[in-house]
């Protein structure tokens, strides 16, 4: 059986990583356009680099929770294909899977990028990055390049879309965990899975706007619902 799991900020919430769509419409005190668009970066690179520097530093203070660990346990025993697509830019799935090596059919894709990577603006080369980035950080990969966060901002194309769409086209089970379904193309994955004839399940604190698109909903904190749901498979 082929499985695709999509995760969003809700899977990391109980680890202490804030979700995006708080009621005040701000992301950690900033307007979305200021910190999550190429235009915002061009207008104020110092603000944007500082925003991501702080979030990169915060990773040292957070740890995978029971939901990340349940997915890693599943990946270790799943015999079919298992694609885990995360919209999260934290490294909590990676760390959970490092502790529990996955079976050969498993892959993890960070479709919106990763805080712990940087990208050269001139060559497109992506490299591991653990420290801070300066506003115009010289790139080691190109004489005219600078390093930016390896993050997919609004208006940019998410990563690995061909591989994700191919996996959705052949999946038997699609599970969406801890995402509001407010951001495309991830919000449309459930429809692609339905077209493939997959069983579709939403796991969230509460039903989302798109809940009617799923065959089933499981509601409650991810640290309880994710181990509970996958423990029965
Ligand atoms: C819990 C929980 C617990 C809490 N347990 N659950 C008009 C119509 C349609 C589309 C568009 C449009 N105008 C523009 C667009 C496109 C645009 C878009 O979707 N905009 C919308 C706002 C409408 N999309 C794009 O621009 C994307 N690119 C694109 O479309 O390119 C074209 C293209 C696509 C494909 C092929 C070819 C071309 C790019 C989107 C990039 C998104 N980037 C961000 C920011 C990254 C930087 C950063 O991290 O700072 O990624 S946006 C932000 O939202 C972040 C997240 O990954 C993403 C999704 O958020 P998520 O994870 O769902 O979080 P929340 O906070 O919204 O929800 C949390 C959920 O958890 C809630 O439901 C809670 O209930 C739940 N929860 N605690 C279980 N304990």
Automatic annotation (TrEMBL):
It comes from Brevundimonas naejangsanensis. It catalyses: N(6)-succinyl-L-lysyl-[protein] + NAD(+) + H2O = 2''-O-succinyl-ADP-D-ribose + nicotinamide + L-lysyl-[protein]; N(6)-acetyl-L-lysyl-[protein] + NAD(+) + H2O = 2''-O-acetyl-ADP-D-ribose + nicotinamide + L-lysyl-[protein]. Belongs to the sirtuin family. Class III subfamily. This is NAD-dependent protein deacylase. 2 residues (Tyr-52 and Arg-55) present in a large hydrophobic pocket are probably involved in substrate specificity. They are important for desuccinylation activity, but dispensable for deacetylation activity. The keyword Cytoplasm applies. The active site is at residue 112. Its main location: cytoplasm. Its EC number is 2.3.1.286. Substrate binds at residues 52, 55. GO terms for cellular component: cytoplasm. Keywords: Cytoplasm, NAD, Transferase. NAD(+) binds at residues 8-27, 87-90, 178-180, 204-206, 222. The keyword S-adenosyl-L-methionine does not apply. Gene3D superfamilies: SIR2/SIRT2 'Small Domain, TPP-binding domain.
């Amino acid at each position: 059986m082929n499985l695709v799991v999509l995760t969003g900020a809700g899977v990391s919430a109980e680890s202490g990583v804030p979700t995006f769509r708080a009621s005040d419409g701000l992301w950690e005190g900033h307007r979305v356009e200021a910190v999550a668009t190429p235009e915002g970066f061009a207008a104020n690179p110092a603000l944007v680099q500082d925003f991501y520097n702080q979030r990169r530093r915060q990773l040292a203070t957070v740890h995978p929770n029971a939901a990340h660990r349940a997915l890693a346990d599943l990946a270790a025993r799943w015999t079919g294909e298992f694609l885990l697509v995360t919209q999260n830019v934290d490294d909590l799935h990676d760390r959970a899977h490092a502790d529990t090596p996955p079976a050969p059919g498993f892959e993890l894709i960070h479709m919106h990028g990763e805080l712990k990577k940087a990208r050269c603006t001139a060559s497109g080369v992506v490299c591991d990055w653990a420290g801070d980035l300066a506003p115009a950080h010289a790139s080691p990969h190109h004489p005219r390049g600078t390093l930016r966060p390896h993050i997919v901002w609004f208006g940019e194309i998410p990563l690995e879309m061909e591989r994700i769409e191919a996996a959705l086209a052949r999946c038997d089970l699609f599970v969406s965990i801890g995402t509001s379904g407010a951001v495309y193309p991830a919000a449309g994955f459930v429809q692609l899975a339905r077209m493939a004839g997959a069983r579709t399940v939403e796991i969230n604190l509460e039903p989302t706007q798109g809940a009617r698109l799923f065959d089933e909903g499981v509601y409650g904190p991810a640290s309880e619902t994710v181990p509970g749901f996958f423990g029965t498979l």
